[in-house]
From TrEMBL:
Residue ranges of domain Aminoglycoside phosphotransferase in the record: 54-218
Any single Pfam family the record assigns to this protein: APH
The protein's name: Phosphotransferase
InterPro entries: Aminoglycoside_PTrfase, Kinase-like_dom_sf
């Protein structure tokens, strides 16, 4: 989900220096601040932090260094490079960088699965139906738009072999330097899950790079299932975004993705 960046300047009492604190993302569940080369993640739910720290220790791809942890704060070192892209914005990364991201995801999916189980197709379907009902009942989206995307989403709700999934592999969570992956952020949703879900979230809003990612992934995948996850993820995200102060109707974001499926 698209982060909101709000610069805040803190002036020390001594006035000897001015240090900038950047609010990278903040909502009702947690907040991430950046101070120089350190990211401070503040989360009242320490279960999510436990999952994140454990997943980074297990992941076979570069992750941020854990500097220290003092609940409710987790301090992480900044990754070199820049984000692969942002939802709603064109990506400046090369096709080779996108392919490298696909290769990194393949490495993750071939690693031993973490202990945390993911949601089953039935659980996801039940939650999705509730979100679709809310979208229509509250006039957030037209009924035909919701119905069409709910039908498309059905293709994702099939049995899958559980693999180690990141669980929230947004394009902004993958950092690159040139054509090389320097690290992957935000592992609090890591679990056992569907490999194609990760590929879908990585390419959400960037369909032009799906071919590059799949080429780097290096094995045949069902593109229709990936596209089904685009619809499913977007339908599920709209209410959360609205309730946490984000705008899913921003150009290129979730509502535009749903409209594109029409």
């Amino acid at each position: 989900m698209t982060p909101v960046v709000v610069p805040v300047t803190i002036v020390p009492v001594t006035m000897a220096a001015v240090e900038e604190v950047e609010v990278v993302v903040a909502h009702h569940e947690c907040a991430t601040l950046r101070v120089g080369d350190v990211f401070l993640k503040v989360d009242a739910d320490q279960t999510r932090t436990d999952v994140e720290v454990d997943a980074m220790a297990m992941a076979p791809v570069p992750t941020p260094e854990v500097l220290w942890r003092k609940p409710p704060v987790l301090a992480l070192a900044a990754l070199p490079g820049t984000a692969l892209g942002r939802l709603g914005e064109p990506s400046n990364a090369s096709p080779a960088a996108w392919a490298a991201a696909g290769a990194a995801v393949r490495m993750l999916h071939e690693a031993p699965v973490p202990p945390r189980p993911g949601r089953s197709p039935g659980e996801i379907a039940s939650h999705l139906d509730g979100e679709c009902e809310w979208l229509v009942a509250n006039d957030v989206l037209p009924a035909d738009l919701v119905t069409r995307n709910r039908r498309i989403a059905e293709a994702a709700l099939r049995p899958w072999k559980p693999v180690f999934v990141h669980g929230d592999l947004q394009v902004a969570h993958v950092f690159v330097d040139g054509d090389e992956i320097t690290g992957v952020l935000d592992w609090s949703e890591a679990a056992q899950g569907d490999a194609l879900f990760d590929l879908a979230i990585l390419t959400l809003g960037h369909p032009e790079h799906l071919g590059d990612v799949v080429a780097g992934y290096g094995t045949d995948v069902d593109l229709d299932v990936i596209r089904a996850w685009w619809s499913l993820r977007s339908l599920q995200a709209v209410r959360w975004l609205v309730e946490h102060g984000f705008d899913p109707s921003a150009p290129g974001c979730e509502i535009d993705i749903l409209k594109a499926r029409m």
